[in-house]
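Structure, all two chains, one model.
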Amino acid sequence: MNKGKEELVMSWYEEYYDDIYRFILYMIGDRQCCEDLVHDTFLRVYTAVDGFENRSAVKTWLFSIAKYLVIDEIRKRNRKRIFSTVMLNQEIPSPFNLELHIENKEFVLQQMEKIQKLKPNYRLVITLKKIEDCTTKEIAEILVWSETKVRKTLSRALQSLKKMNEVGGEIHGE
Amino acid sequence: MENKNFEDQWELLKQVGSTGTQKEAIRKRIQATILNQPSKTRGFQFHPWKSIIAASLLIVILGGSLFMLIEDNPIQNSTSSYTIDNDSFSWKLDDVTGEKAGEKLELYHKNNPSPFGTVTEVTEKEMTTTIKSKSMFVERELEDFPYKTIMYIEHVKMQDVAIRYYFFVPMSAEKWIQFTFDYPKLEYAEIFRAMSTLELKGKKPYHSTEQLYVNHGYGRMIYPVDLESVSITANNIEVYRWEEASTQSYNQYVMKILQDGNWNQESRAGLSSTFASVDGNEVITITLNGNDLTYEYFYPNHEE
């Protein structure tokens, strides 16, 4: 019974690891914590898989679990104020050849840093829509929002990011 | 997004990801955690008769303790005054020295100025506090070791320490000896060589007549416990010296791997066997040449 459960969860791990890893990395910003949260996400999936009723797609369900963990982590960090952009610069991995595409690497790092400065809801919706290619309906399901709220929040989040890129400044607060 | 087209740049950002090695490491961590949480998933079952036995045991234990207190039992006194120094224990691990650092003994290897481990005497309460306060990903009792040994693996992920082993050996009802070893400051083979050859002063060790096997880190493959590292390279080749190696011991080892249930034998030629993990993600060729035992790891489903 447990063996079958483990096999099922590990098959989801193989299939959705990249999506979950990237989502958490964009939300949290450092690789070490990202690895821990990926581990915790799939462990929660293992614990909760008996109650999964296939009413949502597996991917959507995995994102919902990861979302709770990243929000929890962001809250803890806000309390401890331990965010460090130095760590961010050191830790971000890149699958493409960095030596040949150093300009792209810098660009990616800059954008990741800017996304980190967005408020959590903006970060969530931008990552799910623009990085993970989720549909508005899927995002609504993951975040337990209405589709209208998803659209409005995404629009505001993109505006904020655009503004940051135009002025090179930061967007603060809720 | 600066001078580039706002929409096109998202494609670049989607390329951020992790390596196959990281994916494999997290997968192993998840599986190790799942493997070590059976008690949580099994749930609590209450049997009324157990409470009667527990109450009876409690009376016996309390009665015994009271009797020992009244009698001023010498064994109890000798264990409570146990202090750790270089003479308190020995093992078949060469070039190791211990230096006192407060209450604990720090372990150094050869001329390395950085300690790779510690030995400390702890109470049961201190042991519990340590276990609860660390990110322990593996908990296991090591069977047939010289003493009852409970092992934990802490996921440390510091610059020079990936994982930290904790071994707890009971000295008395209240006192435990805690050994810690930092990997990769000390290789897995040496860590288990130390614990499997441990002899504590004044406490007779048990010597198993059977070959013992252990897992290295979070890995699924079992290794003979009495190996000595010869070379471990980054390109997935590990070579060990196996003092007790013979055709018979190699055959027994192969049988043990197959009994483990995690591996299928893909091929065998003389004293070289190839095993594939049941999920197909790992392939290992194990070759015995004289006393040299070589492991070659392949990860067919991972792009590096």
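The domain at 2-167 of chain A is CATH 1.20.140.160 (Butyryl-CoA Dehydrogenase, subunit A; domain 3).
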